[in-house]
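Protein 1 of 2
SEQ + STRUCT:
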Amino acid sequence: MALLDSWSRGSHTAGDVTHPTWRRGSGPGVVLVHEIPGITPKVVAFAEEVVDAGFTVVMPQLFGEAGADITAAAMLRTIPRVCVSREFTTMAAGRTSPIATWLRSLARELHDELGGPGVGALGMCFTGGFALAMMVDPSVVAPVVAQPSLPFPIGRARRADLNLSPGDLATVRQRAADGCAVLGLRYREDAATGTRFDTLSHELGEQFIRVEFPGKGHSTLTEHRQQEGVDRVLAFFTERLRGGV
């Protein structure tokens, strides 16, 4: 937990759902959603780069032990829990994970507090597509999907699916048409992302900014970090949230 000593711990409640949050920084808001197994040291390190670039970062803790390293034991503890949780849709195509409602509420609250054009949202791996679901709310103006992996890519339909209901997909498509770009990052041969980037290119056209790296890596911003990816994310947030300043 010492890793997060410089972060302020809080919580957010929407409906009957409450999750802890970790916050640091000043400037426009960014909701950064961690990957499995949780808020690891490398997730924190990336979040601190976003803070240092001039943003207020809020990390919701959706599962796992905050600050703990990635270990085989941590993965084995976390994966079964998230797979049976009602907050996440891991196998069904054409559905939005219920946690999206809570994340949208968190984004709205942050925007109401900080003002400006809106907030950024970044999900990675298991939570990668959540930034798209958050984009349904107009408070989110800078969505980033990093190696989105839900639903699990078993079968052609799931490999292409964006973890969005038809209604939410229509809203995302309209927001993109109205000028809200989406930044996507992945390794080109990452099987966990299926064919979702092709779906995003088809649905959003030029408003989907597609950044792909060679090879079979996975975690573009953390475990298999690509500096170009980090730079593209920071530039995207700066452009969308601070007008390029």
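Protein 2 of 2
SEQ + STRUCT:
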Amino acid sequence: MLKIAIYNHKADVGSTTTALNLAAAWQRQRQQVLLLDMDPQARLTETFKHIGLDMQKHLFRFYQADTPLADLIQPLRNGLQLIAANKELMNLDSQFGRGPATLQRLADGLAQLHKTHAGYAVFMDCFPGIGVIPLSAVFASDLVLVPVSADYLSIHSAVKIDKALNALEPVLKRRVQRRYLLTRADKRKEMTAEVEQEMRRLFGSEVLVTRIAEHAALAECGRMGQHVFEYDASSPGARDHLTLYFELQDVIKQLPRTTQV
């Protein structure tokens, strides 16, 4: 089982868009995919709420009632599978604390899920912030994918993420594998080139070659309750996410202790 956390503690950098459409790209290669909505604002869940999701089956039940993750999975009509979120996730810190046991709990739950879903790729759409929710995803992940939109504030946020991941490594006793992805890129704007150049200066080879450009299809597909391949498989947005999929295959081969899918 491969576990990828999509995480930046700045909002509006395209994290949910990346999680959804990267998962869809994975599925198009005939691989099984699970989306894990870890945002109390439940943007990913809201995308599919209209198709009749059981809103009593949500991630907080895993913490509150020890419900196995396998029992919370809901199939979507497009073949993806989802564990939904709701606003109760916001209470995770106050109800369960920020200790190692809480942070490790998701990793343990995914280890149990691995017994029946070993071939899955799990994409965790994280809450923008620093707290139990996103740090749990980091603890559980094989790879942290950090979307960085083409603006200077996103660069500052990415630096903070980098420092936070480095600070976790003594606790985890391993390198937190991460890659940085430029999103909302517009090659016509000078700022896009400047942000990408600064990313490469700061993070070197951990910056992906693939860039996710600003496209109408990416903005519209979520509003329509679809991923970009459903909305327009020939669009530049679809091609960007398929390119991202293939680049990540090379990254995954280099990850230590990762089960290939």
